[in-house]
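Researcher: Structure for this, please.
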Amino acid sequence: MFTADMWKDYEVLDTGDGEKLERWGKVVLRRPDPQAIWPKQKPALWNKVDAYYHRSAKGGGEWEFFKKLPEKWTIKYRDLDFYVHPTGFKHTGLFPEQAVNWDWMRSLIKARGGRVKVLNLFGYTGGATIACARAGAHVTHVDAAKGMVQWAGENRKLSNIPEENVRWIVDDALKFVAREERRGNFYDGILMDPPSYGRGPGGEVWKLENELYGLIEACSKVLSQNPLFMLVNSYTTGLQPAVLSNMLLMTVGKKHGGFIDSQEVVLPVTSGGVLPCGASGRWTSLILE
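Model: Predicted structure, token format:
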């Protein structure tokens, strides 16, 4: 398992009965999590929450606040700072489990001397973008949602990342990659965090199982001649790490050789056990000591 166990400002306090109890700095949130099908281990903890996201039977849901929270607040991971706040889609603007991948990419970039071009697809609010840029990479950050790109830009400023280290693109990921291939623009590192399901601006249906291989294959064509890494994240239940390994082997591995490691991504739970948070497939040309 890839375990994100180096957090200080974030903590999973307890899990169970389809929910998780988390500490974001000094704020405690209660949110749904369908993977937590076991009983709660510390029931008394759940009475001390600042906000609770109630899922609706019709889909979606809403927050119930038990105290007035700031419009947004900051949390730190190592030397990185991020804004978080509860959104209408139950998320907070950050996926803490991805910190284990941030550390992996930063180590590879530093081992290459920092002179690395990175492409971050479905970049969201920029956690990976900020981490890679901090290590010395120049990052092209792509997301179809303008609001998420703006939020990522705020995180860049908060972490004091130089403006010239990041290029911001509001666009469809696959269309952008196809244009980059035609332009002859290549990257040393590529990461992607595609949704399990979604709709494009023209009503096109995106279903990860149907689209992921084509996306990875397209990305393999815009890797540089001396590529460093490719990272594929999946939150789709039932998509095993071995599936990611096979896709990487048949695309980037077939062309560049290298090393592949795909595992579950988890967060430690203070009350015991771990919380499954999807899977990550990693390809790299470099083995770190």
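Researcher: Any notable elements?
Model: The chain has two domains: 2-84, 96-284. The mean pLDDT is 93.
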